[in-house]
Amino acid sequence: MSTAQTPQPDDTAGPPGAVGTPEHPADGTPETPAAPDTPASERPDPVPWRRRLLVGLVAGLLAWGVAALLSPEDGAARQLGAAALCAVAAVAVQHLVLVPDRAAEERARRAESLLAETAATVRGGLRRYDELQHGLTRHTEDMKQLVETRLVPPPRPAEPEPPAPPLVRIESVSDLAANFADVLSPGLPILSTFVRLEMQRVIGHLSDLTTLTAECPGENHDWMLTLTRAAEKSICATSTSVDRTFWNSEPASRYLHAQAEAIEQGVPVRRLFLLESARELDDRLLRLCEEQQVLHIEVRVAVLPELPPHLLRGTTNDFIVYDEAVSFEIDQDLRDVNIRTRLIARQDHVHDRMKRFRELWEAGMSLRELEVRVDDEEDGTWMVDRG
Q1: With the C-alpha atoms ordered 373, 379, 385, 387, is the resulting torsion angle positive or negative?
Q2: First CA to last CA across the chain, in angstroms?
Q3: Is the distance from CB of 242 to CB of 208 less than 8 angstroms?
């Protein structure tokens, strides 16, 4: 047999009709409080219209009484008008001041809601970022362990180094030329021999240059062309009467072309023509100087018998100084035949050659002076010892 339990009343709830409870406010007026999330447009007006009208009526009566006391001569109509105006003003002020701005409350409520949503989103993003970072760290550690345990091959045993190729012993220039000939041999016996002899000649000249001097018989135009292409600073050349016919030859054409290319690369070229006598001052020499000046070669002419005595002492053979470091010289015999070409790189010798060239260059005639001199020679107005 069970006994029915009687529901016990809630201790937190007051007795029915108690003063101060939500059902019975303290002022005795039943009023349900507005929920926090109720829109501002639906909330009850905190100041009833009856109270506002009562305040307006009191203000009007006070205004009428003051007007009657201060200005009894104005009449009842004017006093009642002033009282009505004050009553209306009192009601309007209550409406403007006491009534809360419902639109502002709505905007504040929406801003609070948006701020709460943003904070929740940021917290969720930070939580997902932490989870992603933790996952990447764990994945990196797993990959590192996989590479270390499975993908790295075991160390291979050291392999022996291949044997070095046998050294070729060179006893002389002939042996070196023969080795080159064996490598470059074209197959035919005569060409193999030609390669060997040419290599022997070239290697011989290269070996001589270790002493800063090399020479070969006759004129070596290849040396002259190669040094012209190798020059980087300057080219200073003399030209005597011996090589006057050289300028009409095919090697001279290649030589001038190489010098024109050097000038385009910024290498200045100067040429000094040395004449044995004034008889060589003619139109042919003038045309030769003009042709070279067209190529931007600086040209001057010096008549040796007309030079000061201290300049007549010294060599007058052809020489070309490249970069003020190497002197290219051609020697002649008694018949003015070019018999030997020499390369000299000794600094004392090159210094003397450059000093000689500068002295003769300063004493020479420019192209304009040469034109006047040739005209005077042809007219017979230039007085000079022709002996």
Answers
A1: positive
A2: 172
A3: no
DSSP 139-172: HHHHHHHHIIIIISPPPPPPPPPPPPPPPPP--S
Q: What percent of the chain has pLDDT over 70?
A: 65
Position 260: which residue type?
A
pLDDT, one tens digit per residue, over 284-307 is: 999 999 999 999 999 999 998 899
269, β-bridge pairs: 235
**Averaged over 263-271, what is the pLDDT?**
96
Q: Are 281 and 303 in contact (CB under 8 A)?
A: yes
Amino acid of residue 365: M
Neighbour-count burial of 321, counting CB atoms closer than 10 A to its CB (0-12 exposed, 13-18 middle, 19+ buried): buried
Amino acid at 313: R
Q: Is the whole model's pTM more than 0.85, yes or no?
A: no
Helix locations, 74-233, DSSP H: 76-97, 102-146, 173-183, 189-208, 221-230
Question: How many Å apart are CA 149 and CA 277, to the nearest integer?
Answer: 96
Token pair for 374: 């040739």
Which phi and psi angles does 174 have, rounded to 5°? -65, -40
211 phi/psi in degrees, rounded to 5:
-95, 10
Residue 347 sits at φ, ψ, to 5 deg, of -65, -35
